[in-house]
Each structure stands twice: as structure tokens, then as C-alpha cells.
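Page header: ASSEMBLY MODEL / two components / 298 residues total.
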Amino acid sequence: MASKELDTSFSELLVTEGSDSVGQSNKLEGQGSNDDAQITCFTEDLHDVTFHFQIIKLTKQIYVWIGCNTAKFGHLYAAAITRPNKTVAVTPVLGGTSDNTGSGIARRLVLKTGLNIIVACNIPKDSPTLEVTAERKLFEKLKSLGYIKPRPEGLPVRSAHN
Amino acid sequence: MYSSQPTRFPVTHKSVSLDIKGNKTDIVICKYDDKFLVIVTQIGCMGTILHARKEGSVSTEPTFSVSVIFGKRDEPWLLACGRQLIEHISCSGSSRPLVLSLGLKDHSPETLKELTVAVIENCLCYLAAILKYAIS
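Prediction written out in full:
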């Protein structure tokens, strides 16, 4: 690695201030092109728990972070439809090897959206109620954003993201 | 521009879209309690995901560990990019690990160098700013 070249480049960098979105739900729906990353952040306050959701919609993939009371990153899972029989494969990417909280959410997200999914989730292990509640809130939001479109018969299909 | 929400969302983020060697590149950087996430994509998905962290104690020179946790494991320039970024994060005063996703159309050294410079110029200055804000 030519680190000296990069070091030289770094010393010549000018610090520029760009617009930032600290603390802002930076929803880009309706703004920019469909190729841009669309970021949605929202919080759901329930009786004894607070869920934070961050959805980053890329052209061919959706990244979701679910925070349960804290803003820790949690375990990371990747899920996708595998050919030829179109089953869903889920794998832990970071953490999550001793418990699979979040892997079920990832799997069902793929089934509902038809896209590749990356899920980061810090819901405590052995909390199926929390997982179900978070998943329900998440799916409601994804439906409202148009990432999941219901079929006429009531079953969801892959959203038209292109 | 800030929203008028009564409470701030606990994860801060910044997104930037720029051109690297003719390819439209989306960069999203997020700060969680215990990690930074940097997504760089030219192909509409996260691509290869790397994990980079600082090791070593306070009294010794820091060392860094970078590994591919998802995707291409035979592209050394991706690791080099992660190594540069985690070192910059460390120099900014944070010990948080970095989750870096690189979804690139080409993995040439020129692209990775330009990308690393772009991330540091556009995003890590933002990181340094919010870290200083958090510390002060």
C-alpha cells in the first residue's frame, strides 16, 4: 500500500463543511433520483420500550438498523433469496452466532420485499415479544414508504424499486 | 437544516453523493453508540463488508485489525482502504470500531485511493466534528 502517497494527499486536504443531517430524519422520498440512497429514521415509543429504526434504501438492497432503547449497533445479518428454489438464506455477519435475534426479521424482510437485506439489531436475546413488536412496526413503515406493496389478494409482493 | 423533533434520533448520519472516476458514488456514514458505519456504493448494494477496529492499550502505539466479514476476501485494496479509515477515526479521537461496506464497480488502486480521500474529506471531518461536540 502506497501509504506515503496517501499521507501526502491527506496533508493537502482542506476541511470542507457540507450540509449534515445530525439528528434529522433525512427522508429523501420525492427528492433526488431513485438511484440515491434513501434514508428514513424514526422512533416508536411503546409502554416500556423505545424502538429506533433506521432504513437505508439502496437500489438493490435495503439496510435496516433496529435499536431497542439504545443506539448500539447490535448484531448484523445478511439475507437474500437463493436460486433455484427461491428459498431465503440468512447468515450472521457480525456477532449473532450465539443468538439469532434479528435473523428472523431479516428472513421475513426478504420474503416481503424480494430484495437483499442487511439487518443490524440490538434487541436482547430471548425476547420474542420485542422482536415481533419491532418487526410489526418496521413492516408498517416499509409499507407506508412503498418498499412493500400489498397484492390485491392481501399478500405482499416485491416493490417496484427501479 | 434541523428538524423540529422534540428528541434527537440517537443515531446521527450524513449522506453524500459524488463522482469517483466517472461512477456515481453514494456515501452514507452513521454513528452508533459503539460503532461507525460507512456505506460506499456504486452498484446499488452494500457489496463487501469489512470490520476494522483499533487494538492495543492506551500506553502503547495503537495497532489496527481489519478483516472482511462478508463478500470478497481476495481484494487487498479493500482492506487497505479500511485500514486507512480506521486509522483516521482513531486519530480523530475515537476508539469505535468501523463497519465499512464497499460496493464498487472496480477495485483498482486508483479508485480505492480516490474513494478513501473522498470519504475522509467529506465524511470523517464530520465525524471529527461530532466527536469534538460529544467530548466538549
